[in-house]
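During the second half of the funding period, the structural biology subgroup turned its attention to how the target accommodates small molecules. The most pressing case was calcium ion, which had performed well in the primary screen but for which no bound structure existed. We therefore specified the complex as follows and requested a full 3D prediction, including the ligand pose.
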Amino acid sequence: MTRVLIVEDERQLARVVQAYLEKAGFEVRVADRGDTGLAEFRRFRPDVVLLDLNLPGMDGLDVAREIRRLDDTPIIMITARVDEVDQVLGLELGADDYVTKPFSPRVLVARVRAVLRRRQPAARARRLQVGDVEIDLDAHTVTRGGQPIALTPTEFRLLTTLAQQPGRAFTREQLLQAIQETPYVGNTRTVDAHIKNLRAKLEPDPRHPRYIETVFGVGYRFRRPDEG
Ligand code: CA
């Protein structure tokens, strides 16, 4: 059984999330403090951790850092403020995803499934299809509605980074790292410029993107296939 640890001090919220996850077939444990959450992590060895950012006992960011030192278990951060998201998704911390309060427990269950899928190497298909866009990672080709789209190597790398993890929000820093062959201190606005070019080629209406969405205050994400 897949194990989920919830570290959340709002007990009512934790109970609701627990009920949804258990109904979805997960084994769930709840801790309501950061320090006890970390202790429970060591005992329970969960497959996924849902971690509130503001916790008594030990701050959520510190808990995440400690978990990262022990293991690469996926962490989904629960934050109350959108402006904390950048920090949460930062490479240094390496959270896998986040939800902002208030959130729908149904959406959270979907996120848990998504991070678990991403951890399975086999799930990284060599051919990605979202809507009428198809990306062939081996052939380095992109088509929309069967029509080939010519992308630069940088645009292709940017697109595949986003599309391999649909639904995941990437910060501009993360995308900059993904498209640079040699690390240098670049300007994250470079990412915006490439995204603009990519949308012009890929999107039926670049001003109303269907595939590459802007995540306000964070960066960009590729639409999940199951999103309408
Ligand atoms: Ca809290």
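Two results from this model are relevant to the next phase. The longest strand covers residues 3-7. The chain has a mean pLDDT of 86.
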